[in-house]
């Protein structure tokens, strides 16, 4: 059986979902879990760009290197390729469901549904200050641990 695959999705694929990709990949590696991990955006504004400098800086301050990641847009075959399609907010879920074939929509989940958080969504930090990027990383670290626990139990 091939290893489970996880696609993280936000709007731009330069702040939240690449952070989730980098954090989740590092945590999976630390646990010795073999997973296929990627991220993408529902919009294609920044295609080919590296993650936002602010996301990179905050992530690096906690030991996650996002510098080699490249932005891309969600594509049609992502819905069949990935086992879990994990959205950062409800707008992402809505956009994904509009594009996804009905029989594959069960793969689309809200990331913080896995966490025990006061937040329902990972808020978009793009137009805010550094504190917003720290909050994004806090939420992503917690939800990653919870989702990895679930995948580990399902092994
Ligand atoms: P992300 O943040 O969805 O977490 O990558 C955003 C990045 C860029 C834009 C919006 C949100 N933008 O409007 O360019």
Task: Describe the overall structure.
Helix 1 (16-31) crosses helix 5 (130-153) and helix 2 (53-61) packs across helix 5. The mean pLDDT is 96. The chain is α/β, with parallel strands linked by helices. It has a 4-stranded parallel β-sheet with strand order 2-1-3-4, with helices on both faces. The chain is globular. The chain has helices at residues 16-31, 53-61, 78-81, 90-99, 130-153, and strands at 5-10, 36-41, 84-87, 108-110. The chain has one domain: Response regulator (Rossmann fold). The termini are close together. Bound molecules: 4-nitrophenyl phosphate. 4-nitrophenyl phosphate binds at residues 10-16, 45, 124, 126.
CATH class: Alpha Beta
In CATH terms, what is the fold-level topology?
A: Rossmann fold
Rg is 14 Å
Proportion of residues in extended strands: 5-15%
- Fourth-level CATH superfamily: Response regulator
- Unreliable residue runs: none
Brief account:
The chain has 155 residues and is of the alpha/beta class. The protein has helices at 16-31, 53-61, 78-81, 90-99, 130-153; strands at residues 5-10, 36-41, 84-87, 108-110. It has five helices and four strands; from the N terminus they run βαβααβαβα.
